[in-house]
Design goal:
- Helices cover 74% and strands 0% of the residues.
- It has seven helices and no strands.
- Helix 4 packs across helix 6.
Length: 104
């Protein structure tokens, strides 16, 4: 469900619990047990992995990637990307290009 709906900025565990017709608390407990991390951490991981793929495709602008992976605010997306990868999306691409150039 998360991998199919990560682009929804309003995606919450409560929404999934409602969809599955189970309690939020039970789903939270089971999710953490099975995934080994909280729903929020898992959602961020999925969004950042997808954002990286889109960034590497070089077909989209940063604000388009932000929107596609569920961040309605590109500035917040940049902050989340930096927190997850240790650099901004632009810096990530720049570092990748310099590595590609060094390998030539």
């Amino acid at each position: 469900y998360v991998r199919e709906h990560y682009g929804d900025p309003s995606l919450r565990l409560q929404q999934i619990a409602d969809e599955l017709q189970i309690s939020y608390g039970y789903l939270s407990l089971i999710f953490t047990h099975i995934a080994g991390q909280s729903f929020k951490q898992f959602l961020i991981e999925v969004r950042m992995e997808e954002a990286r793929k889109l960034l590497l495709s070089r077909r989209y602008r940063i604000y388009e990637i932000a929107d596609k992976v569920g961040y309605s605010n590109p500035r917040y997306f940049n902050e989340a990307f930096r927190k997850y990868y240790g650099c901004s999306p632009v810096e990530y691409l720049r570092n990748l290009r310099s590595q590609e150039g060094a390998g030539s």
